[in-house]
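Project channel, design review

CF: Before we commit to the Alsobacter soli constructs, I'd like one complete example in the thread so the newer folks can see what an input/output pair looks like. Taking ABC transporter substrate-binding protein.
RD: sounds good, go ahead.
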Amino acid sequence: MKAFGKALAAAALALVTASAARAQDVTLDVFYAFPAFAKFHEPIAAEFMKTHPNIKINFRAPAASYDEGHQAMLRQSVTNQLPDVYYSGFHLLTELADTLEKRKQLVDLGPLLKAEPQDWVKANYSDALLSLGQVNGKQVGLAFNASTPLMYYNADLVKKAGGDPDKMPDTWADVLALAKKIRNGDTAGMAYNIHDWPDDWLWRGVVLQSGSPLLSPDGKKVAFGGETGEKLLAMLRSFVTEGGMPLIDWDQSRQQFIAGKIGIFFDTPARLRQVTDLVGDRFTLRTALFPIDDKAKGKLPTGGNAALITAKDPTKQKAAWEFIKFVTGPEAQKIVVETAGYMPTNLRAGDDAFLGPFYKQNANFRTINGQVSRAAPWEGYPGGNSVRIWRQQREVIAGVMRGEIQPKAGIERIVSETEALMK
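CF: and here is what came back for ABC transporter substrate-binding protein:
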């Protein structure tokens, strides 16, 4: 009887323990942009769930772009159908945070960071990295992906055209001069797919590298108008007329580069792994720093996204914080860099225990880290119309590149339309 009683008690204890464990199980609803990025989101989630068996990661269908994801989040905010974790594009972070905070739908990560051991915080996140996820001095997210525009090039075509594959040009005039030499028959000298890019990242790239800020000091006017903007649009037109750039969409352009039909190609480092694998041994693929005309003041927009917590339930908020710490940690960032090509957003990620050996063997992936000193915030426009502003700017830019709009008329239209929407 005593044995039976002990067995019964043990069974009861096991039942209570199992019930408690099930009670602690949490499923996080996670939303991100770009379906192709499942290649690193999925394995990172799998690794996280191995070490956090009580937390399950459930991904919503990815948004087609940051802009599309942003619009979805604004709609879901109204209907209270937000995910628990969202990866917001940096350029839309302020607009989204302002909207969600008004409805008390966004978790302030500042207190959560302060509750962590400060030695751990300093070992993993620099002030610059933390600033990428800040809005109005508040830590609304942690940077997950970070990138600046990168030059990809076909070293074989560069050499054939008389260029030096080991010393690529670092100004736009010299890039265009080399592209003209590469251009031959159905082979284009270069491609810079700003005319159909899903957001204004590449446009900001040419603006900021010229030394011009995006907005006036008071944030109420466009700062790249007049002669500066006219020259930039004229330069973009010359990519087509002199560099032979085909005005096809950015995915087709990437495929043409991979096929050896474009000499110099500008893209996000996030697709470096994909391009590397697809090029294979067709030609020698190399990467170089983005050209900067104003070496003193030139900057580059930091693309990528920050992970936010929009969960309302305290248990889910706690689980989401564990998830965000993991995805911005060195193990997850190692997966991101090796799978895609982004800059790591964790200070420890470059250590020998993580990415050190990989960088030593893959110089093309290391290039992007040489642009960290020029990385500037990718901020949205005031007024809540950032997505609409870019779509109208892009329409004008595409018209200039097609030769349908003159650069002077184009920049005047961009300035007037942008400032009207900023109000």
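RD: helpful, thanks. Residues 351 and 368 are 17 Å apart (CA to CA).
CF: Residues 7-23 have pLDDT under 50 and may be disordered.
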